[in-house]
Amino acid sequence: MRDEEKDRRVRPGRPHLALGALSGVLAGFASLAVAELVAAAVRPQSSPVIAVGGASIDATPAAVKDWAIRHFGTGDKLVLQLGILVVLAVLALVLGALAVRFRRLGAAGVLLFGTVGAAAALSRPDSTGITDALPSLVGAVVGALLLYVLVGRLTAVRRPAASTSDSATEETGDGLSAPTGWDRRGFVLAAASAAAASAAVGAVGRSLNTSRGQDAIASRNGVVLPSPGSPAQPVPKRAGLRIAGISPFVTPNSDFYRVDTALVVPKVDATTWRLRIHGKGVRRPGVYSFDDLLRRELIERDITLTCVSSEVGGPYVGNARWVGVRLADLLAECGVKPPSQGGAADQLVSRSVDGMTIGSPVEDVMDGRDAMLALGMNGEPLPFDHGFPVRMVVPGLYGFVSACKWIKDIELTTFDSYDPYWVKRGWARKAPIKTASRIDTPKPFARPKAGTVVIAGVAWAQHRGIDKVEVRIDDGPWQEADLAAEDTRDTWRQWSHPWQATKGGHTLTVRATDRTGAVQTGERTRTIPDGASGWHSVVVTVD
Ligand SMILES: Nc1nc2c(c(=O)[nH]1)N[C@H]1C(S)=C(S)[C@@H](COP(=O)(O)O)O[C@H]1N2
Ligand SMILES: [Mo]
């Protein structure tokens, strides 16, 4: 009898540890699933993975973030979320195993992680209040209870009535008849139903979350962009070369690069959207609705947008036709003067609904260039990914110092008194776009046939314009490439060069000269703090 009793004692040996770890993972899964459902009721951004992900993006050192953008591109956000899930899974395994010995401690651990998620959600710059803590907290409570119950099944044994205070004594039920001393049937049943319930709850939460923003979608569908009072000149026919592999002159919205910190793309309802203009030296602060902007004279301009995180030859550059309101006019209406005319503010800080802050020189946006609050992109309202309902676009400045998407607030201030988001993370306060050029074709490591090979690509020096592009084969002389027609000095320019390719390996290099006469420097620098410099080279083998 004693021996038999002993056999049924809890011995957290290997199998129990493994099942404990499994319980931990199931508890974690249940927590996230419940959180997803609660987030659908609160707002998608408050779900723990999104909140912790957002917090990690903000806390990531600039160099690492830059590396992530370069290596994973727009997929960087997916990689981050998968990373968080992997870390959570490992923690859940450990907590689950721990819970086999220390049941309460395991459950408390789950609650602790819930608190971390809640804290992250509350500390996000776009947090809308205390309810943002709910998804993490409710999820954690459910997860903790589940872990407690599941591990209870693992430690359920028959004990003499006068047994110790081991937590296992709390258990009764089916476990009593389990031959191995733990409630196998109860565990399998509880685990399987928990997994199934979590999957269902998670799926419902997911679909509710993804179908959110119906008002925003409806408002976007309802936008009719009036024809611009100041239309763009037609793109010259010869601005776009017919060469396979070259970047099209106008980048379609679906191919336009996307760089931002938003794990959930903000879906803003244009009918309730407002833009506030205020701050230093703003004599007549204003609040504008989307309709207020639509009623103004609209300008239409072709402007090439460039990201500072694009390496030499990198992909984060695109050219679109934007329609919007001239920013300088709006600022003047609010009584703002540029510093050169005695204005008090030299920095314009734009704020987005997701808490991004971007600083631009007031002088630049009021110097006569076509800085605008864009409402349309390539003939349609801004896509959500690109800032619907309104974003800033400033010719000649990298996106991180100008192109605020989902904008909601413009504050006039000084560079001395405020550092916006990227500046706090080591990037430059001011960043005009560097003169650059890229070989689009042939691709690196291509194997063209000997004979005429057309080398072609794009060059840009927004607001200065491209004057010349030169190509060099190996260490040969620089040869002038043929330039396509220029659209405006705010757009990129295509170029091509027919090369009589000879067999063997060759290095093709390109450099541009802008209208100020400055030749693109061959000196390589990193992207941080104010943009990469250096020449783009492509190595090919001619067969
Ligand atoms: N709200 C918000 N606006 C933003 C950003 C961001 O992270 N959040 N990123 C900026 C950067 S770094 C660039 S390069 C451009 C990119 O614009 P796109 O995604 O439309 O190409 O948006 C800018 N505007
Ligand atoms: Mo950027």
Bound molecules: ligand MTE, molybdenum atom
Q: How far is the first residue's CA from the last residue's CA?
A: 85 Å
- State the helicity in percent bands: 25-40%
User: Number of folding domains?
Assistant: 3
Helix/strand structural class: alpha+beta
Strand-residue proportion = 15-25%
Based on CA atoms alone, the radius of gyration comes out at: 30 Å
Can you give the mean pLDDT?
92
The major beta sheet can be summarized as: 5 strands, mixed
Tally of separate helices:
13
Which consecutive residue ranges, at least 5 long each, have pLDDT under 50? 1-13, 158-179
* Spatial sequence of strands, sheet with the most strands: 2-1-10-5-6
Label the overall shape: globular
Main attributes of the structure:
13 helices; globular; binds molybdenum atom; Immunoglobulin-like; five-stranded antiparallel sheet; five-stranded mixed sheet; disordered N terminus; 3 domains; 543 residues; 18 strands; alpha+beta; binds the ligand Nc1nc2c(c(=O)[nH]1)N[C@H]1C(S)=C(S)[C@@H](COP(=O)(O)O)O[C@H]1N2; Sulfite Oxidase, Chain A, domain 2
Please explain how this structure is put together.
The chain is of the alpha+beta class and 543 residues long. It folds into three domains: 2-211, no CATH class; 237-425, Alpha-Beta Complex (Sulfite Oxidase, Chain A, domain 2), CATH 3.90.420.10; 436-542, Immunoglobulin-like. Helices cover 33% and strands 21% of the residues. It has 13 helices and 18 strands. It has helices at residues 2-7, 14-41, 48-59, 62-72, 76-101, 103-123, 134-154, 184-210, 214-221, 290-295, 327-333, 362-365, 421-424; strands spanning 274-279, 286-289, 299-306, 317-326, 347-352, 357-361, 372-377, 380-381, 391-393, 407-413, 436-441, 451-460, 466-473, 479-480, 482-483, 493-501, 504-514, 536-542. The strands form four sheets. A five-stranded mixed β-sheet has the order 2-1-10-5-6. Strands 3, 4, 7, 8 and 9 form a five-stranded antiparallel β-sheet that branches. A four-stranded antiparallel β-sheet has the order 11-12-16-15, with no helix packed on it. A hairpin with a 4-residue loop joins strand 5 and strand 6 (357-361). Helix 2 packs antiparallel against helix 7 (134-154), helix 2 packs parallel to helix 8 and helix 3 packs across helix 6. 46% of the residues are buried. The structure holds the ligand Nc1nc2c(c(=O)[nH]1)N[C@H]1C(S)=C(S)[C@@H](COP(=O)(O)O)O[C@H]1N2 and molybdenum atom. The ligand Nc1nc2c(c(=O)[nH]1)N[C@H]1C(S)=C(S)[C@@H](COP(=O)(O)O)O[C@H]1N2 binds at residues 256-261, 305, 307, 352, 354, 356, 386, 399-400, 403-406.
